[in-house]
């Protein structure tokens, strides 16, 4: 029998965190037909950011990669709360925002933290379209923010 996505997550030594409470007037994720769209998720751990600032200045590219991975776990928790992780048919889109120092151009490598985690969990069902966007600042001075769009099984 094939491993479920939840079992794969566990086999990787990971677990979904509690859904991060919204910081403003929105919901963490919403279901539309057979898709779930998440709000942008910060890499919060226990309600706090493990790092602050711009990537390429206060935060290294490697640290930001790990933060993107954590933000992706938070987005997956939001998907799970709305539809159940094992009901995902495939990941359609990942959007990563990277608060960047003026000369930092490694946004794609940072957002790989999210994309590679998706691949580890979902395999071929995780092959997705993606945007990696450098921005001046993110909420709470977070270095990264990640959002997902997933398709659900029929």
From TrEMBL:
Pfam families from the UniProt entry: YjgF_endoribonc (PF14588)
CDD domains per the UniProt record, alphabetical: YjgF_YER057c_UK114_like_1
Domain of life the protein comes from: Bacteria
InterPro entries recorded: Endoribo_LPSP/chorism_mut-like, RutC-like_sf
Gene3D superfamilies reported for this sequence: RutC-like (3.30.1330.40)
Start and end residues of each Endoribonuclease L-PSP/chorismate mutase-like domain: 8-152
Protein name as annotated: Enamine deaminase RidA, house cleaning of reactive enamine intermediates, YjgF/YER057c/UK114 family
Organism: Corynebacterium mycetoides
Lineage, highest ranks first: Bacteria, Bacillati, Actinomycetota, Actinomycetes, Mycobacteriales
